[in-house]
Amino acid sequence: MDFYQVNLLAFVLLNGSMVYRQYKNEKEAEISEKLLDCDTESLIGDANIPQTDSATAFTKTFFPVYVLVWAADWLQGPFIYTLYKDEKQLPEEIVARLFTTGFLAGAFSALFAGSLADKFGRRAACLLYCVITISSCATVLSNNTSILFLGRALGGLGTTLMYTVFEAWMVAEYNHRQLERSSLKLSTIFGRMTTLSSVVAVLAGLVGQGLYLLFGSGRLIHTD
Q1: How many CA atoms, within 13 angstroms, populate the side-chain half-sphere of residue 196?
Q2: Is the pLDDT confidence value at 152 over 90?
């Protein structure tokens, strides 16, 4: 096996062990909590059932969206440089400026993204991320340099939103539904998010490489 395949196998095994360990720890914690709360539950009867149902519904709502968001980023991110450099034949200086524009846009938007999400709603900010990311990917259909710079600026803003508003919505909704009264803990959710992000990165890399071999980097970005 070559260097890439060895690293891929290592990361697959590592992430697989992380998923198993996370699952095992959650089961052990759930059993321990049930044993500790046995006397209390006998007094309150089925009072925790609504919280348990709400926690299940919450995870089924949040995690699929979280996985799709990160998969979209991991899928198109590694191929942007190749798209600019090889597909569009842009000079190295222009490519560097495009990436710098994205980084600066991300840094600048971090100054106000959180406050705007608090003011207009975190759910609205999550939807805005989707619109911005789709628009950013759509700009690569053009060969106009100004539009490409606009796309990088949108990409930087989208990255800021991706790293902030989804977690903010999750925490706010968790507290709003009073899920702290259930067996689902915030630490468990964040642990699952970290594990899923790693697994999605590996899977997206495999899918992205396959799509690149079939269609090339340009069409791969277009289908994100």
Answers
A1: 17
A2: yes
